[in-house]
Amino acid sequence: MKLAVFVSGNGSNLQVIIDAIKERSLTGINIEIVIADRNCFALERAKQANIFTYQLDRRSDWYQEVDFILKKREVTHILLAGFLSVIHPAICMTWKNKIINLHPSLLPKYGGKGMYGLSVHQAVILNHENESGATIHHVTEQLDDGKILLQKKCKVDLDETPESLQQKVHLIEHDLIIEGIKLLYAET
Fold first, then answer.
1. Which is catalytic among the residues 103, 121, 137, 138?
2. Which among 22, 56, 82, 149 counts the fewest CB atoms within 10 Å?
3. Is 174 among the residues known to form the active site?
4. How does pLDDT run across 88-113, given as a tens digit for each residue?
5. What's the whole-model pTM score?
């Protein structure tokens, strides 16, 4: 499987994937390209691992250029790992069932427009949820609405802050992302 990883931030989930490939707990998988929608540390992580990178221009209609690059690099699957831009419907259609997203909540709760980063965890706490977690799902034209493939839960403590919950969920994401890639690979 030739994977493209789309990122927007620190890239700790990207690093988990890089390490898993290096340690051979992920076999048959290669990261062909890391695509970012802004200048971020994830691009540095990719460069340090000798992975081709591309930073798109969010002010442009970038989907056609990105689709061309993906095909040129012979990418077979896409993973959104903390990617904050909305994927164009044309990419969703072209890559149907070959693109997955890691979301920091137990979808269908706390998905959709504006539900990313601390806003997800704030909403979970404000609604007095007993548990939260992360979800791997297929990407479709509708935001955070694709078929749920995997979920992992954690307890929300009474004294939880958005920041502490974010840390708990982030740890869950590291395991879940590897499981999600393996599941995607098994579907090929």
1. 103
2. 22
3. no
4. 999 999 999 999 999 999 999 999 99
5. 0.95
